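Hello,

Following up on my earlier ticket. Below are the two sequence lines again, exactly as submitted.
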Amino acid sequence: MTLLSVTVLTLDSKDVPVLGSIREGMMSALSPVESAARTVATPFRNAWNGISDYDDLEAENQELREQLDALKGRELNTESFEEEVKKLREQLNVPFVTGFDVEVAQIATGNFSSFDDFTARIDKGSDHGVQVGMPVVTSAGLIGNIERVSPDRSVVHLITDPDFGVGVRLKSNAFGVGRGSGPKSPFIVDRGIGLDVEVAEGDPVSTSGQERAKFPKELPIGTVSKITRSQSDQTQILEVDLAADLGRLDYVQVLECLPRDVGETDAGGVPPC
Amino acid sequence: MLTDWGQIVRWTLVVVTTLILQVAVAAQFPVWGVVADLMVLLAVCAGIVGGPARGAIVGFWAGLLYDLARDGRLGLSALAFTLVAFAVGSLLVSVLSVRRPLAMLIVGLTSAAGELLYAVGGEIFGEHTLTHPRLWVIVGVIALVNALLSPLVLRACAWAEGPEERSSAIVGILDG
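Thanks for your patience. The regenerated structure is below:
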């Protein structure tokens, strides 16, 4: 049994296609169970979360009250309320994804294991045109890309994974490379930003869209929250607060484009990002 | 090895039911943000009830099915659960009888060991599991939840194993 396990592990690390197919089959087989469980369990789950995450909810409630107070203050100071409404409408229309078809999907279920923090499952799959590599966003910004697909389910690889590398662009048009640093931790841009690059806390960070990039340009990632200057590496390391709230994902949009190395070759008519 | 068809069917039923409960119940109701790991619980209980060989077989299949359902490295849970179920089965093979509180303690500790083994294996394969910021919370909660659920799962395993094949250790647990 131990040898068999090691063999499976070895085959999986070599990306043997048959194992991927078995996994897809399993994902499809479990999807009705997931859907039924989600539907039945939602009211109970909400009550349960209220009990088991009471401290978190209390903290979140406090934070929301503070945000509400701030918004009330802003509302009083805003010259035109209609302008605010217009901005909100723009947010809902996800203005940064113009040029690509979008497949709206919903988070299908919670993770099956506590170690699966860097993935999320959505309720759309290859039957809806979703393919491996497609970017996934919310109305706030980038959250990841498609890692695995079955006919009616897909697994999203989240931006919080330390292995998730993204080419980024700063307000000053400087380019760098960033990566996740774990759930509930900031996104880190730790390559390519020299000491001479002008950057300030609060600056927006978006995808670079450079040649061979996995994502279209100017997808919002977040805002710079901390800057550390490393004299030894002659670089600036930026901590970026993600624009999208990955702790409260519900509806997401899959952009129907593929990384350029895939999209330019064999993508079945899907445009490159 | 499993030779009796009735026994194979019963164990298959128990493993598949546990997987469905993992997906449909455990994943929906995290405890302090931690998803309970019913599959490692099943593997450990199979080791206690059926001995090291049965534990290894059930642990492997429970782990493999869990690997197929979850998003981690395929074969990692299978390896961790096989080893931990074999170990607990070997530990208890010569024990005449174990009382329920001790059995719950053993299940809790070995479930924690199973999770740690998974985390170590995951780190080797680049999964960032051992450096997970909530590793000890995950291990602790799973140990606690599995200890509490163990009387139920031990009964299910005793049913799947059948009266002739059960290890002597299970007698005291079923009697309380």
